[in-house]
Write a structure and sequence with these properties.
It is built from 5 helices and no strands. With 125 residues, the chain is mainly α. The N and C termini lie far apart (67 Å).
Length: 125
């Protein structure tokens, strides 16, 4: 019994493992499927879109990291670009009702924030 408690205590001290990119995509797909009542074929495409675009975004981040780029704005711009692509793909995939629900659950707020950053960057040029 003492040994099992000791093992449990050691496991509790281990840092939680960060979910992989694929796991994050699957969790987001599951969340959207439940929230938007997606058909199975839509969930398949959502998962495919997320896995492709998140991977491409991560590859771009990695490239900048190797080049020792440290500007937060550059990383934010990359993220905004890929999130716009994801939203554009989702807009084509979802029904009008699903799209409205997607926007209401926070996507509209994120789109506004990206637009503000884009406008601010344009003013600075």
């Amino acid at each position: 019994m003492v040994l099992s408690l000791l093992c449990a205590g050691l496991r509790a001290q281990e840092p939680e493992r960060e979910p992989s990119l694929e796991e994050k995509c699957e969790m987001e797909t599951d969340r959207l499927q439940a929230l938007l009542e997606l058909e199975d074929w839509q969930a398949f495409y959502v998962d495919s879109i997320l896995k492709h675009d998140y991977k491409a975004m991560q590859d771009e981040f990695d490239r900048f990291q190797k080049e020792k780029v440290s500007s937060y704005n550059i990383y934010q711009g990359v993220q905004d670009k890929w999130m716009e692509k994801i939203d554009a793909a989702f807009c084509k995939l979802f029904t009008p009702e699903q799209w409205e629900a997607y926007l209401k659950q926070g996507a509209a707020r994120q789109q506004k924030a990206r637009e503000k950053r884009r406008a601010k960057a344009a003013r600075q040029l």
